[in-house]
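Worked example 3 (structure in, sequence out).
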């Protein structure tokens, strides 16, 4: 991949200003890609085509962009966009316009994690891991650590936690084996709690941006969700069942504690160690490094380059 993978960027001709995005992860991916050797100026060398548009592009503008690609270049029509990819943090829904239908159904979508319900197609789409705000210069947790708490939960009271989360948090707050923090906690306190807890709790519907931090500090993520999660980052790379615990929202504090205690007896240290190794894939660097988030996203794109095969030829 590092030596042969090539991407051609298709950008809107009427965009004079630099492409702008709403999230740091999108901006870092775009900046890293355009400054990388993976980009080619010769479309005949490309394995994939990046349909480039800013976050504030309307669906009508995106449809017009795809229409122009169809009319002005031969590459879209030969696969109906299956060898193209685009980036949209919130994802694109199902629209009636033919151009948007082909973009949504055929092209690879790169969206933010988690992606809104109904805007992610598991067999082809990819999610970006959230940008990690913690300083990367800090060391990881030691391989063999003595945890003070069984579980740690960082509450986001300003994000509409919901009845199920509030009930669970209230039940856990009185248990000395659990520590409940708030979003207002300073970063140092947050890191200490990550490093001193066996498990870190996340509600999928509220906030899962801290999963990468938890993995890095040796705190096994526990994701509380209403159903199966199809948009986890790096599903082609990471065996999530080996590094995280997934439980339903209907479980109460007693049942949750039983699950965690059982996990402690059944290979917890292996799960923790694999998670710490996997945490490198969640790190965004201004200058990309091997196995970081940028390269892992590219690997997922590279693995999809032969989803649709076509005869290579020169186009005039």
């Amino acid at each position: 991949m590092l030596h042969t993978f090539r991407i051609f960027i298709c950008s809107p001709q009427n965009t004079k200003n630099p492409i702008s995005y709403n999230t740091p992860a999108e901006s870092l991916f775009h900046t890293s890609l355009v400054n990388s050797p993976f980009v080619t100026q010769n479309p005949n060398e490309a394995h994939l085509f990046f349909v480039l548009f800013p976050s504030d592009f309307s669906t009508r503008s995106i449809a017009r962009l795809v229409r122009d690609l169809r009319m002005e270049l031969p590459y879209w029509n030969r696969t109906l966009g299956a060898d193209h990819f685009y980036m949209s943090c919130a994802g694109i829904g199902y629209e009636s316009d033919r151009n948007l239908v082909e973009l949504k159904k055929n092209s690879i979508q790169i969206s933010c994690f988690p992606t809104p319900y109904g805007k992610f197609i598991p067999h082809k789409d990819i999610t970006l891991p959230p940008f990690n705000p913690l300083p990367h210069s800090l060391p990881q947790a030691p391989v063999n650590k003595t945890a003070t708490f069984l579980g740690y939960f960082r509450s986001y009271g300003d994000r509409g936690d919901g009845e199920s989360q509030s009930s669970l948090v209230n039940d856990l707050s009185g248990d000395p084996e659990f520590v409940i923090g708030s979003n207002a906690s300073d970063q140092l306190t947050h890191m200490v709690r990550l490093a001193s807890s066996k498990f870190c709790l996340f509600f999928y519907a509220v906030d899962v941006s801290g999963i990468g931090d938890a993995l890095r500090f040796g705190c096994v993520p526990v994701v509380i969700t209403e159903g199966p999660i199809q948009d986890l980052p790096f599903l082609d790379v990471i065996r999530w069942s080996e590094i995280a615990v997934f439980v339903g929202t209907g479980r109460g504090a007693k049942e949750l504690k039983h699950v965690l205690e059982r996990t402690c007896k059944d290979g917890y240290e292996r799960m923790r160690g694999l998670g710490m190794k996997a945490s490198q894939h969640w790190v965004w660097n201004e200058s990309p490094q091997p196995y970081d988030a940028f390269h892992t996203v590219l690997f997922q794109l590279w693995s999809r380059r032969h989803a649709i095969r076509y005869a290579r030829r020169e186009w005039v």
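Notes: Residues 59-72 form the longest helix (14 residues). The longest strand covers residues 149-155.
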